[in-house]
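Morning F.,

Quick status update on the modeling queue. The single chain you submitted on Monday has been processed. Sequence for confirmation:
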Amino acid sequence: MTTSMQRADRGWLNEAVRRIEADYNRSADTHLIRVELPRHLGITLYLKDESSHPTGSLKHRLARSLFLYALCNAWIGPDTVVIESSSGSTAVSEAYFARMLGLRFIAVVPAATAPPKLAAIRFQGGEIHAVDDPRDVYAAAHRLAADTGGHYMDQFTYAERATDWRGNNNIAESIFAQMREEEHSVPSWIVCGAGTGGTSATIGRFLRYQRHATRLCVADPAGSVFHRHFADPAVTTLADGEGSCIEGIGRPRVEPSFVRHVIDRMIAVADADSVGAMRALSAALGRSVGGSTGTNLIACAQLADAMRDRGEEGSIVTLLCDGGDRYACTYYDDAWLARHDLDHRPAEAAMRAFLGSTA
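Structure tokens below.
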């Protein structure tokens, strides 16, 4: 590469980073919603509302970090085709940043991904490459990168290292800043899910770095390998035919970004229970939330019950990962639930009681 070409590429890089940083400066931090638990006196639940990001989900943070990481490693240039394997939300967010930089973006997604998510990817300027078997997304993304001469972002490998876990307004630092004036400012638990493992790695490392007593619980779909690997490190993949319908979390293989040692507890949650909790919380908030938020909420209820039974007071913080509008044709469609043999009603009733709602 000639010196003039290097200067041109550095000029483009500088502008690309500036655009991403300017977008960040225009975006306020996400809200922390306080939820009273009338049956658990002295225990308060908080929801970190990641649905308020410009692309509507927790994955907006990850996509920003992945783009900055790839740019500063000189993996992306002005003509690079950007490719990602995703169940939907990460692809929506990455398509947003790719369009911001004038780059072509291709999302490799499982064919069963909810149509509204596919529409959101296309709305942001992204292209869709669907594969029938979710386990094939990795290989398909590598092939596309080779065929186009592009760059495979590979969220599953780089999620845990692209985010600065020491601070720099990562999600953990934001939670503690917003909790500062609450009665129990240091949470007893923070609860999140694991798709790449990047969020749990960031939170778990931050807790140790800041020497907080807070423990980290990862809520995982029952049809996921992560909680099995947590219990037995020798387990790294699911058997054929196993899996979960909760998009965004749970995986058939242990991803490189999943760091089990920074997690204090994992709770496996049935898909039907996730949907029931999601629906109950949506009724309590007056707006719909996604399925992975329901997974988190089931774990929060178990932790709150245990704290109450031990006579403990404190706070629990979890993530409201995305809104429910992307799941109108799946989790909010009773016919779809029936076809997938998911009876959400018992969990919904139990969660309404947990939240103190009779609506």
